[in-house]
Amino acid sequence: MWIYVGIVLSLFLGLLILLKRQKERSDYLLMIWMFFLSFHQLLFFLTFNETLYQFPHLLGIQFSFPVFHGVLLFLYANEITGLKTRSFKQLWPHFIAPIVINSLAIPFFILSGNEKVYIFKNDGIGFEWFMIIQLSIILISGGTYTFLTLRRIRKSRNQIENLFSDTYHKQLRWLEYVAYGMIGIWILVFLFDDWVIFSGVVLLVLFIGLFGINQTPAFIPGIALIKEEHIQQPTEQNRYSKSGLTNIKSQEIKDQLNSIMEEKRLYRQSDLTLDQLAKKLAIHPNYLSQVINELEGKNFYHYINDLRVNAFIEEVGKDHNQNYTLLAIAFECGFNSKSTFNKYFKKVTGQTPSQYFKS
């Protein structure tokens, strides 16, 4: 019964994405993964209840399937964080592992149907060597792609803090948890039988259904990505040595930035982005990012939210705001979620807002 849930839910999630009106490239990848998961679980179930033995030449087609899950997760993470894989040259190396597994399985594939059924019924007798190599490839590939996925997610967080003043919906925590769930699956593969493994898969699918279907890309189309050398720590001055921005020009941009923030209070715009601010100043986003990192000593996210915290503290002290809640004032200053406000305020002051104003 449990495996039915996984099959149906994966298929349902895939259809749900298929019927989605405005689909991103990341949606297509997630849809492919869901359909593939459904098919993989179906083959497992049909093999377990021996229905597939009636079609023996279908036995073994799933040998390389476990490897694809790590690959698809990684490609999806790349896509949703803005790192596109566009060419065949970039794509094909990801499928070396399944090619190797299927190549090693050729001696099995050329057997007669009765021989294949006999091997499956007797726990892979005669192909123990293949099962060991297959398991090794699955674990190495799965672990590697899960690690690469986690690294990509964490790297994207550094990038979005240089692009957005609000990162609440762009942290991809749910995808990070999916990656950790995949690690759990690989552990199950090593320690338990197929029923336990696919029970873990069902739980993973349930989690994806709850949190992943309505996700928007971490990088919105139209927002310029900052070059790698412009997202390093501000103390690494040599990173900017080839940017073409002189000290005098940097100071001019900083003065313009401080002026526009003081006069127009753009930080009060909760969805303010680096790209939007750069357009207001009529400069390239890369130059603005460099100035904020070097001369302000912080990234765009911290620069804007520091201004919001300072504005909040100032506004709370004004008489005409005494009838408003702290959260209402925080929203007026540019924050758009309670958790982000509380977390960032404590980061700056070392206290929660209520503690700060009671002391």
Description of the molecule:
It is a single chain. By secondary structure, this protein is mostly helical. It folds into two domains: 2-211; 228-234 and 243-358, Arc Repressor Mutant, subunit A (Orthogonal Bundle). The protein contains 17 helices and no strands. The radius of gyration is 26 Å and the shape is elongated. The N and C termini lie far apart (58 Å).
How would you sum up this structure in a few lines?
The chain has 359 residues and is an all-alpha fold. The protein has helices spanning 2-18, 25-48, 65-80, 88-91, 96-104, 106-109, 113-121, 128-160, 173-191, 194-211, 247-264, 274-281, 285-295, 300-316, 326-332, 338-349, 353-358.
Top keywords for this entry?
359 residues, mainly alpha, Arc Repressor Mutant, subunit A, 65% helix
Query: Radius of gyration from the CA trace?
Result: 26 Å
Please indicate the count of domains: 2
| Shape estimate | elongated
- The rounded distance between the terminal residues' Cα atoms is 58 Å
- Sheet of most strands: none
In total, the number of strands is 0
Low-confidence stretches: 219-242
Number of helices: 17
Helical/strand content category = mainly alpha
Helix-strand string: HHHHHHHHHHHHHHHHH
For the residues shown, what is the average pLDDT?
Answer: 86
Helix content: 55-70%
In what range is the share of β-strand residues? Answer: under 5%
Sequence-ordered SSE layout with sheet pairings:
Elements: H1 2-18, H2 25-48, H3 65-80, H4 88-91, H5 96-104, H6 106-109, H7 113-121, H8 128-160, H9 173-191, H10 194-211, H11 247-264, H12 274-281, H13 285-295, H14 300-316, H15 326-332, H16 338-349, H17 353-358
